[in-house]
Amino acid sequence: MSRTPLNLSSLSDLAVRRVDVVDTTGSTNADLLARHAAGEDIRGAVLLAEHQSAGRGRHGRSWSAPPRSQIALSIGVGADGVDPEGWGWLPLLTGVALVDAVRAGTGIEAGLKWPNDVLVGTGKLAGILAEVAAPDPVIVVGLGLNVTLTAEEAPDPRATSLQMLGAEMLDRDALVTAILRELTTRIAEWQAARGPDQRLTEDYRQRSLTLGSHVRALLPGGSEITGTAVDIDVLGRLSIDTGAEVATVSAGDITHLRPAD
């Protein structure tokens, strides 16, 4: 399959400081973190890769895809002045921005599985990973959006792509532009509010596929709880009604269960 490379010159008029496109790398997140460690100010820096050989997801999971079949993008975000309790909203607002860009650009009705997986039905269309460039208040947010990935190429049978979903708009340059415009707007609002505001919280809830679903949460340490997801609180945590109590989950793996599960 012939896939068109990204055109850096088309990625203009964006509210970012710098955009770089590389042909291949291990991980765009790792590269931005390394640049920060070397003394570079990565606030507003965007790095895209045509191919990642060591792409990472949440909980250290690896992810791979053929060159030019997805959008692999990382951005450095300054969290100066934002209470660290609000930093957890950065990957969540990235999910909101990504869902909005996909819906507007392709008509695909994507939604969010808590905390920040982008799904269409049960298929995973995109993933998001945020990492703090400690000790500074700088966070690197990375995302991977499957564009022309085929079912035969997918490393996980649960994966889907815009092409597999029948989207007619598969122009990665246009998609990157739309994503960055949505994302930089959300980031600027988060920075100005010094954390999440009521609009962001409500926007996330409206795009959530998890709220109202019967879910199982696998928690750090191996314990699990099952119940109905009922809310996202101001810290971005998931509230699950187990029948005996309403438990608050700040980290964990969520599975959407069928009624019989």
Automatic annotation (TrEMBL):
Coiled coil: none
EC number(s) recorded for this UniProt protein: 6.3.4.15
Molecular functions per Gene Ontology: biotin--[biotin carboxyl-carrier protein] ligase activity
InterPro entries named in the record: aa-tRNA-synth_II/BPL/LPL (IPR045864), Biotin_CoA_COase_ligase (IPR004408), BPL_C (IPR003142), BPL_LPL_catalytic (IPR004143)
Highest taxon of source: Bacteria
GO CC terms of this entry: cytoplasm
PROSITE patterns named in the record: BPL_LPL_CATALYTIC
Keywords assigned: Biotin, Ligase
CDD domains: BPL
Ranges where the BPL/LPL catalytic domain occurs: 16-191
Uppermost EC category: ligase
Protein name: biotin--[biotin carboxyl-carrier protein] ligase
Source organism: Mycolicibacterium sphagni
